[in-house]
């Protein structure tokens, strides 16, 4: 069944990232947040949750731990106090720079070439979007 292969592949991906992230002091979910903010800093919590497909009840404790570690700040948007804006600190930006080689190292672990990685990512994105479309 497809579900078994997808589940075990997800577990293998998490396991493959662990030795790449441990020297940086990051967990896999923290890395996802860090990479997303490094790509687009100053996101709202809702925007980050939508892009990572994480609910606020999962994201909030993760962000609190990252804030306590000094990697990001959470602040209210002055224009809309319902909106929480996430910004990397200097330490967070430094950590993101230290993590810049992680995607290449992970790609090497897969043994796939860049075209295969892109094709696999695209097929998985189609599957994900058909099973659970992003919230509007």
Features:
136 residues; Arc Repressor Mutant, subunit A
Compile the SSE list and pairings.
Blueprint: H1 2-21, H2 28-39, E1 43-44, H3 45-52, H4 56-68, E2 72-77, E3 80-88, H5 90-98, H6 102-110, H7 114-131
Antiparallel strand pairs: 1-3, 2-3
Your description of this structure?
The chain has a three-stranded antiparallel sheet with strand order 1-3-2. By secondary structure, it is α+β, with helices and mostly antiparallel strands. The mean pLDDT is 94. It has one domain (2-100): Winged helix-like DNA-binding domain superfamily/Winged helix DNA-binding domain (Arc Repressor Mutant, subunit A, Orthogonal Bundle). The chain has seven helices and three strands, in the order H-H-E-H-H-E-E-H-H-H.
Give the CATH topology.
Arc Repressor Mutant, subunit A
- Identify the strand order in the major beta sheet: 1-3-2
Do you know the CATH architecture? Orthogonal Bundle
CA(first)-CA(last) distance: 31 Å
**Helicity range of the residues?**
55-70%
CATH class: Mainly Alpha
Q: What is the residue-mean pLDDT, rounded to a whole number?
A: 94
**Domain unit count:** 1
- Percent of sequence in beta strands: 5-15%
What is the global morphology? globular
CATH superfamily: Winged helix-like DNA-binding domain superfamily/Winged helix DNA-binding domain
- How many strands, which pairing sense, and closed or not: the largest β-sheet? 3 strands, antiparallel
What is the number of E strands? 3
Question: What letter string, H or E per element, gives the SSE order?
Answer: HHEHHEEHHH
As a whole number of angstroms, the C-alpha radius of gyration is: 16 Å
Q: How many helical elements?
A: 7
Low-confidence stretches: none
The assigned structural class equals alpha+beta
């Amino acid at each position: 069944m497809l579900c078994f292969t997808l589940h075990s592949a997800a577990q293998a991906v998490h396991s493959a990232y662990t030795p790449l992230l441990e020297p940086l002091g990051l967990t896999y979910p923290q890395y996802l947040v860090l990479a997303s903010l490094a790509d687009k800093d100053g996101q709202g919590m809702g925007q980050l949750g939508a892009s990572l497909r994480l609910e606020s009840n999962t994201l909030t404790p993760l962000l609190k731990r990252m804030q306590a570690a000094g990697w990001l700040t959470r602040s209210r948007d002055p224009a809309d106090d319902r909106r929480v804006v996430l910004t990397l600190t200097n330490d967070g930006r430094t950590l993101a720079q230290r993590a810049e080689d992680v995607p290449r190292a992970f790609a090497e672990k897969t043994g796939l070439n860049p075209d295969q990685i892109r094709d696999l990512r695209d097929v998985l994105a189609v599957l994900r979007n058909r099973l659970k479309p992003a919230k509007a």
